[in-house]
Amino acid sequence: MAQTSTPGLALFNGGTIGYVGDTQAGNPTMRKSVTLLILATAMLTGCAAVSESRFNPFNWFGSSTPDPAAMNPAESETNPLIPARRISFFRNNQPEAFEGRPIAEVTELLVDRRPGGAIIRATGVASRIGPFDVRLIADEDASDATTLVLDLRALQQPGPRSVGPLARQVTVARWITDQDLRGIRTITVRGANNARSVRR
Fold first, then answer.
1. pLDDT for 161-200, tens place per residue?
2. Which residues touch 116 (CB under 8 Å, ≥6 apart)?
3. pTM here?
4. How do the domains of the chain map onto residue ranges?
5. Gap between the Cα atoms of 166 and 58, Å rounded
6. Superkingdom of the source (predicted)?
7. What's the burial of 143, exposed, middle or buried (CB within 10 Å: 0-12/13-18/19+)?
Protein backbone atom coordinates (compact mmCIF):
# COMPACT_ATOMS: atom_id res chain seq x y z
CA MET A 1 0.00 0.00 0.00
CA ALA A 2 1.48 3.33 -1.07
CA GLN A 3 0.73 6.36 1.09
CA THR A 4 0.81 9.99 0.10
CA SER A 5 2.45 12.77 2.06
CA THR A 6 -0.89 14.44 2.90
CA PRO A 7 -1.77 13.78 6.55
CA GLY A 8 -5.02 11.95 7.04
CA LEU A 9 -5.17 10.46 3.50
CA ALA A 10 -4.13 7.01 2.31
CA LEU A 11 -3.75 5.78 -1.25
CA PHE A 12 -4.74 2.16 -1.64
CA ASN A 13 -3.71 -0.33 -4.32
CA GLY A 14 -7.01 0.04 -6.13
CA GLY A 15 -6.25 3.69 -6.85
CA THR A 16 -8.97 5.07 -4.57
CA ILE A 17 -8.25 7.58 -1.86
CA GLY A 18 -9.75 6.91 1.55
CA TYR A 19 -9.93 9.34 4.49
CA VAL A 20 -8.19 8.02 7.57
CA GLY A 21 -8.84 11.12 9.73
CA ASP A 22 -6.99 12.68 12.56
CA THR A 23 -6.89 10.49 15.64
CA GLN A 24 -6.12 13.29 18.06
CA ALA A 25 -8.77 13.89 20.75
CA GLY A 26 -8.84 17.64 20.26
CA ASN A 27 -9.90 17.67 16.59
CA PRO A 28 -11.62 21.07 15.96
CA THR A 29 -13.71 19.65 13.11
CA MET A 30 -15.04 16.92 15.37
CA ARG A 31 -15.89 19.45 18.09
CA LYS A 32 -17.84 21.58 15.60
CA SER A 33 -19.76 18.56 14.35
CA VAL A 34 -20.71 17.45 17.85
CA THR A 35 -21.73 20.99 18.80
CA LEU A 36 -23.93 21.29 15.71
CA LEU A 37 -25.47 17.88 16.40
CA ILE A 38 -26.34 18.86 19.99
CA LEU A 39 -27.85 22.20 18.85
CA ALA A 40 -29.93 20.50 16.15
CA THR A 41 -31.22 17.94 18.66
CA ALA A 42 -32.18 20.68 21.12
CA MET A 43 -34.02 22.63 18.42
CA LEU A 44 -35.96 19.57 17.24
CA THR A 45 -37.04 18.67 20.77
CA GLY A 46 -38.26 22.25 21.16
CA CYS A 47 -40.55 21.77 18.14
CA ALA A 48 -42.72 19.38 20.16
CA ALA A 49 -43.53 22.17 22.60
CA VAL A 50 -44.29 24.63 19.78
CA SER A 51 -46.64 22.20 18.03
CA GLU A 52 -49.03 22.35 20.98
CA SER A 53 -48.64 26.04 21.76
CA ARG A 54 -50.82 29.01 20.80
CA PHE A 55 -48.06 30.30 18.50
CA ASN A 56 -48.70 27.48 16.02
CA PRO A 57 -51.41 28.70 13.56
CA PHE A 58 -52.64 25.13 13.00
CA ASN A 59 -53.74 25.04 16.67
CA TRP A 60 -55.69 28.31 16.60
CA PHE A 61 -58.98 26.46 16.43
CA GLY A 62 -58.97 23.12 18.23
CA SER A 63 -61.66 20.46 18.36
CA SER A 64 -65.26 21.47 18.85
CA THR A 65 -67.14 21.20 22.15
CA PRO A 66 -70.92 20.83 22.65
CA ASP A 67 -72.86 23.88 23.86
CA PRO A 68 -76.53 24.13 24.83
CA ALA A 69 -78.60 26.12 22.34
CA ALA A 70 -81.98 27.77 22.60
CA MET A 71 -83.57 28.37 19.21
CA ASN A 72 -86.76 30.32 18.78
CA PRO A 73 -89.56 27.72 18.31
CA ALA A 74 -91.47 30.13 16.07
CA GLU A 75 -88.63 30.01 13.52
CA SER A 76 -88.83 26.24 13.21
CA GLU A 77 -92.61 26.38 12.62
CA THR A 78 -92.41 28.49 9.45
CA ASN A 79 -93.21 26.66 6.24
CA PRO A 80 -90.56 27.34 3.57
CA LEU A 81 -92.98 26.25 0.83
CA ILE A 82 -95.31 29.22 1.39
CA PRO A 83 -93.90 32.18 -0.56
CA ALA A 84 -93.29 35.50 1.17
CA ARG A 85 -95.59 38.40 0.30
CA ARG A 86 -94.21 40.83 -2.22
CA ILE A 87 -94.45 44.60 -1.97
CA SER A 88 -95.29 44.94 -5.64
CA PHE A 89 -96.64 42.53 -8.19
CA PHE A 90 -93.80 43.34 -10.61
CA ARG A 91 -90.90 43.92 -8.28
CA ASN A 92 -89.69 42.88 -4.85
CA ASN A 93 -87.83 45.80 -3.24
CA GLN A 94 -86.02 43.69 -0.64
CA PRO A 95 -83.91 40.58 -1.12
CA GLU A 96 -85.68 37.44 -0.04
CA ALA A 97 -84.45 35.98 3.22
CA PHE A 98 -83.36 32.35 3.34
CA GLU A 99 -86.32 30.37 4.69
CA GLY A 100 -84.43 27.27 5.77
CA ARG A 101 -85.17 25.56 9.05
CA PRO A 102 -82.52 24.84 11.67
CA ILE A 103 -80.98 21.38 11.40
CA ALA A 104 -81.92 19.29 14.44
CA GLU A 105 -78.43 18.51 15.76
CA VAL A 106 -74.92 19.73 14.95
CA THR A 107 -72.60 16.72 15.21
CA GLU A 108 -69.26 18.09 14.00
CA LEU A 109 -67.59 21.47 13.56
CA LEU A 110 -64.16 21.95 11.96
CA VAL A 111 -62.23 25.10 11.12
CA ASP A 112 -59.51 24.59 8.50
CA ARG A 113 -57.02 27.46 8.29
CA ARG A 114 -56.12 28.46 4.74
CA PRO A 115 -54.09 31.34 3.29
CA GLY A 116 -56.33 34.40 3.46
CA GLY A 117 -58.91 32.98 5.86
CA ALA A 118 -60.52 29.77 7.07
CA ILE A 119 -63.07 27.20 5.92
CA ILE A 120 -65.77 26.49 8.49
CA ARG A 121 -67.23 23.02 7.94
CA ALA A 122 -70.26 21.83 9.89
CA THR A 123 -72.00 18.46 9.85
CA GLY A 124 -75.47 17.91 11.26
CA VAL A 125 -78.35 15.46 11.36
CA ALA A 126 -81.80 16.64 10.26
CA SER A 127 -84.98 15.52 12.00
CA ARG A 128 -86.26 13.87 8.81
CA ILE A 129 -84.91 12.74 5.46
CA GLY A 130 -84.70 15.16 2.54
CA PRO A 131 -82.85 18.33 3.62
CA PHE A 132 -81.37 20.37 0.76
CA ASP A 133 -79.81 23.80 0.12
CA VAL A 134 -77.90 23.64 3.40
CA ARG A 135 -76.33 26.93 4.56
CA LEU A 136 -74.42 28.45 7.45
CA ILE A 137 -76.24 31.72 8.15
CA ALA A 138 -74.54 34.35 10.34
CA ASP A 139 -76.62 35.56 13.29
CA GLU A 140 -75.67 39.22 13.64
CA ASP A 141 -77.67 39.66 16.87
CA ALA A 142 -75.92 36.81 18.71
CA SER A 143 -72.43 37.58 17.33
CA ASP A 144 -70.10 40.15 18.87
CA ALA A 145 -66.52 41.36 18.42
CA THR A 146 -65.01 38.10 19.74
CA THR A 147 -67.69 35.53 18.84
CA LEU A 148 -69.05 34.50 15.45
CA VAL A 149 -72.40 32.69 15.66
CA LEU A 150 -73.69 30.76 12.64
CA ASP A 151 -76.98 28.86 12.27
CA LEU A 152 -76.99 25.55 10.38
CA ARG A 153 -80.14 25.74 8.24
CA ALA A 154 -81.61 23.83 5.32
CA LEU A 155 -84.75 23.66 3.25
CA GLN A 156 -86.67 20.51 4.08
CA GLN A 157 -88.74 18.18 1.93
CA PRO A 158 -91.43 16.17 3.64
CA GLY A 159 -90.04 12.75 4.38
CA PRO A 160 -90.07 9.92 6.89
CA ARG A 161 -88.47 10.30 10.29
CA SER A 162 -87.82 6.59 10.86
CA VAL A 163 -84.60 6.39 8.86
CA GLY A 164 -81.07 6.19 10.19
CA PRO A 165 -78.94 9.24 10.96
CA LEU A 166 -76.66 8.69 7.94
CA ALA A 167 -79.60 9.21 5.58
CA ARG A 168 -80.42 12.49 7.36
CA GLN A 169 -76.83 13.76 7.62
CA VAL A 170 -75.81 17.01 5.92
CA THR A 171 -72.45 18.78 5.59
CA VAL A 172 -71.85 22.39 4.58
CA ALA A 173 -68.80 24.64 4.41
CA ARG A 174 -68.38 28.42 4.40
CA TRP A 175 -65.34 30.56 3.60
CA ILE A 176 -64.47 33.30 6.11
CA THR A 177 -61.70 35.79 5.28
CA ASP A 178 -58.93 36.85 7.65
CA GLN A 179 -60.53 40.29 7.75
CA ASP A 180 -63.81 38.80 9.02
CA LEU A 181 -61.90 36.62 11.51
CA ARG A 182 -59.95 39.55 12.99
CA GLY A 183 -60.61 39.56 16.74
CA ILE A 184 -62.78 36.42 16.65
CA ARG A 185 -61.87 34.01 19.47
CA THR A 186 -64.90 31.67 19.31
CA ILE A 187 -66.91 30.26 16.39
CA THR A 188 -70.28 28.71 17.29
CA VAL A 189 -72.60 26.79 14.97
CA ARG A 190 -76.13 26.29 16.26
CA GLY A 191 -78.77 23.73 15.38
CA ALA A 192 -82.32 23.39 16.70
CA ASN A 193 -81.33 21.23 19.69
CA ASN A 194 -77.65 21.97 20.32
CA ALA A 195 -74.62 24.00 19.29
CA ARG A 196 -70.92 23.32 18.87
CA SER A 197 -68.06 25.77 19.36
CA VAL A 198 -64.37 25.99 18.55
CA ARG A 199 -62.05 28.40 20.33
CA ARG A 200 -58.60 29.82 19.64
1. 777 888 889 999 999 999 988 999 999 999 999 999 999 8
2. 177, 178
3. 0.55
4. 9-51, 57-80+98-199
5. 30
6. Bacteria
7. middle
